[in-house]
């Protein structure tokens, strides 16, 4: 039993398995690229709805064009298992050989690829929880003075004011008298009492009680336009967000450690580590 | 004409001259034209940026890529290494593609006004440049090996294989950072780390896995440096087909209105 488990463990962590998975992922993503180019409408709903909702509708209904996506998930699952097993084996081996290292820094830097590998797993976990659990409430249109209920909560959000900045310069001809930025003051309220006052803008979402609020659209976009000023908000609760950004940060730390090791601390052949 | 993006025409012309000079063995003239071409290309890139800043210049990668390759390979070119001629050829080829297949008529959108979109673009350019340089280096090593085999000499391929890998490592690091910047930009702009409207995200991820595969090749002791060279060359061809091609426009004849 133990031998069988050990064999399975070794097969799952084999580097040849990694290589095969990488190549299969490459081929699958190229297929995905071609499919997404010719059928963008099939995948666009993934921006707004959860994975299972998409899989049961768009995914299952157009299997010939979406099969690559399901294959991608299987391959990523296998790669995650492979990465975990392989990295864990190597971390244990490295710790076991600690006495061979004369320098603590060199020893610590040797962990850099493993840090990246574990970070990769955290990122994938983040994406998985995001696509399985995130709630996305799109098209919350607000005009100044009006409010909308934040779904799944007792809070409301009101648009206090909307200040759109228009481009007046001569350098950006395509943007002349068109909106270049906006400042929307949002009031987060429970009943009629204001809990928080925040400013949301393009590329500057705000966070409130686990929700993030993003600007999707606004009007008027041209100076002098008679359109009713409004802002269209996407309200999102994404439990995976913290994971994938934490994973990203850890990956970057590991990457810089690796680059530092590669270029400045590499051991010459025959020298002690 | 000097302070417009059209100065890229001059840059491409100077690149062609440097290539011709290199072919005819005039090193100094070649370097002179090459540095002048780089200067003109840099000016063109600055103009393109200033015409859209703080927004991102959309689909202008082909105009920036020869500049990135040129700057990164300055050391090689000035040391008069053997691959210089191939680098000149590549830069010429890419510059001429940008001249005849420009895709720079798309207007930037407001979500691109963030430091992360610019980092995504520029790091992606640096990564592509590194991959192309690695492929040139790998190709040359294969050629040297082929020539050596004919005269029964054995070249030291280990050291050169490390150089190819080094360029790929730099490229992979830039590519990864570019993807992470894209992830943050996507979240800030649209609230999701992946935007399913843009197919290019898939191919960016595909190439990331391809080069991750390349970087794991050293774990197979049986795989020779030659295999790495082949994979480096194939990688550059794939980047050219999938990542570079998507930024190209339709064929356009030269427009001399700016003269």
Brief summary:
By secondary structure, chain A is α+β, with helices and mostly antiparallel strands. In chain A, 50% of the residues lie in helices and 23% in strands.
Instruction: List low-confidence stretches of chain B.
Output: none
Instruction: Provide the succession of SSEs of chain B.
Output: HHHHHHHHH
Determine the strand fraction of chain A and express it as a percent band.
Answer: 15-25%
Chains forming the largest contact:
A-B, 51 and 46 residues
- The oligomeric status of these chains comes to heterodimer
Write the layout of secondary structure elements.
The complex is a heterodimer of chains A (273) and B (259).
Chain A: H1 2-12, H2 15-38, H3 40-43, H4 51-61, H5 63-96, H6 104-109, H7 112-133, E1 135-142, E2 147-149, E3 155-166, E4 179-190, E5 193-200, E6 206-208, E7 211-219, E8 230-237, H8 241-264
Helix pairs in contact in A: 2-5, 4-5, 5-7, 7-8
Chain B: H1 7-23, H2 27-50, H3 61-72, H4 74-78, H5 84-100, H6 115-150, H7 157-190, H8 200-216, H9 225-244
How is this structure best described in words?
The complex is a heterodimer of chains A (273) and B (259). By secondary structure, chain A is α+β, with helices and mostly antiparallel strands. Chain A has three domains: 94 residues, no CATH class; 72 residues; 103 residues, Tick-borne Encephalitis virus Glycoprotein, domain 1 (Sandwich). Chain A contains eight helices and eight strands. In chain A, the strands form two sheets. A four-stranded antiparallel sheet of chain A has the order 1-8-7-6, with no helix packed on it. In chain A, a hairpin with a 2-residue loop joins strand 6 and strand 7. The longest helix of chain A has 34 residues. The model of chain A has no long low-confidence stretch (mean pLDDT 91). With 259 residues, chain B is mostly helical. The chains are: A alpha+beta (273), B mainly alpha (259). Chains A and B meet through helix 2, strand 4, strand 7 and helix 8 of A and helix 7 and helix 8 of B.
